[in-house]
Write a structure and sequence with these properties.
With 130 residues, this protein is an alpha/beta fold. The protein contains five helices and five strands, in the order βαβαβαβααβ. It has one domain: Rossmann fold, CATH 3.40.50.620.
């Protein structure tokens, strides 16, 4: 089994990772931790390295519990939701775990919702935490 966690360094993303860890133990699954960075003229290599370094501590915690894992920081012009769905399709992911942030209806309309996009378009079950 393969579990994908969308990670954006928020508290809800940390909760998503905790749940993914429990599921990985229960189902002897591999965990993929994915963060996305928007491609722009202002993005520098140091930003990508910083994102990967912030995720490195998670690998240690997962490996201590004998959970196979992999991290990736992806730079893309696509939205984070599109990147997550595309990654899930390309890697035959069995479950996606994401954190939900509470937004007003107007906030979702203006800024969109990564979680909503993933839930509606994912090729596999999506578990959300808040």
């Amino acid at each position: 089994m393969k579990i994908l966690v969308g990670y954006d360094r928020s508290n809800v993303a940390k909760e998503a990772l905790k749940l993914a860890k429990k599921h990985a133990k229960a189902f002897d699954a591999k965990v993929f931790i994915l963060t996305t960075l928007a491609q722009s003229n202002e993005l520098e290599l140091v930003d990508i390295q910083r994102a990967e370094q912030e995720m490195e501590y998670m690998i240690t915690a997962l490996k201590e519990d004998n959970i196979s894992c992999e991290i990736q920081a992806i730079v893309s012009l696509l939205s984070p939701g599109e990147v997550l769905v595309q990654f899930a399709k390309e890697n035959e992911i069995d479950e996606i775990v994401i954190g939900l942030r509470r937004k007003s209806k107007v906030g979702k309309l203006i800024f969109g919702s990564t979680a909503q996009f993933v839930i509606l378009n994912a090729p596999c079950p999506v578990v959300s935490v808040n």
